[in-house]
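DnaB domain protein helicase domain protein: structure, please.
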Amino acid sequence: MTDSYYNLSFERAVLSSIIFEPSIFSSLTLNPNVFFLEAHRNIFRAIQSLNNAEKPIDEEFIRIELEKKKIFDERIMVEILTANPIADITSYIIELKKMAKKRDILSAVNKIKSISDEVDGDELLSHFEATADKLRDDESLDIFSIKSLHDVVIEEPEFICKEWIPIPKRTITIFSAGGGTGKTMAALQLAMRYIEEESYEKKVFLWLSEDPAGLSKSRAADIAAKVLNKSFMQLNGLMDISDNATFPVMTFKSSGEGIVRPEFYQMKSKLKPYDLIIIDPLIGFFTGDENSNAHARQFMQLFTQWAAKENKTIVFIHHSSKGVRVGGESKTRGASAFVDAVRAVYEFEKIKPTHDEDEKKIDKSLRRVFLTKDNYNASKHFGFQQDIKFFPPQQIFTEQTVKDYDATVSTKKSGLIKDKAQPPRRTTLPLGANIRIVDEPSNRELTPDEQAILDKKIKEAAASGIKFE
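Here you go.
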């Protein structure tokens, strides 16, 4: 039999992909006869048995299953495990099914030929038609299912954080912005809002590889206290982070074909407990040509399938291209396939003053957010543009004289203290307040006792978190 009737490399790739990613098995329409090699059919049957018994589909359990029947072949198993798993095995399965169909037709023709001398023409034709009908009815070549529209259950798109920045569930969203715009601050706030929205019952994972974990924690604590007015301690055990270096999840051949690396499956396994996954930056896990739609499409397909099959909501942090926005045009960088693969794209920009607007009056804690792609009608909740608070309010210095600390004054200490001409005012200052002590000179020097009182008051203020300029 010629190579046009089978492809052992394809068979190994399909079996390898199932072993590395068992969750795909339940969605496949395959039977053992799709595989040409008997040993491959045996392994597939073992996988079927393990799946039916709700046992793990892995090398050891497959070995046990085959050794029971004394048909385990170590060499064949090694060949499969060393084959590269494929991101999307649909094309491979279609080709294997076509080859299996050709084998079935060849087998049927040979059978008809073998009985041609024993029957008359009408009986031979009848046998031929019955065989042809059987081959047509064989569902092993089915590549999609058909449903009655009447029987389909109506579903509306679901969102997390619908009242803030609506993120479609069970798919991918992109946050895109230039450097220093606040992408990470938005990601941290999204995580905390989601946890609160889900009554502290869901977990979030953030891969923030561009900043140390300690800095991300500091930012998160600031957002919790000063933007959300929440206790950061409530998030304990629900919001996990990694600041490890990123790694490629797929490599690409010169032909453009993407090969999934084992690290991707390890990452999926480790992140099973999390419902919302935020990855910063997207490009850290992508090693293909950023402007290649073929590369970008295969890469994004890994994550869209993961989100759909395992009920994950994934947010990628990505960079915008430089230049001025024109209307609703997207500025998300790289191949259009990155944007094509997701259901929503939000782009962030700093708010710039208009020609008659004073830049000093612009609230620096806000960012202008544009919804530039919307497949699930997020605009119904968000509109297409909003100014949203990403940062804690900026520190504003409050001018106070030293009389607010109940001290008497003179010019000798940089003119910080004012004579006690009237009863002193006492001011209660919040923890962490920012104070500028202004110069109100008098005409006499401090006495040693007055100097000691001033020094004591300044130390007490500094110890409570008050900052001096």
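Notes: Confidence is low (pLDDT under 50) at residues 396-443.
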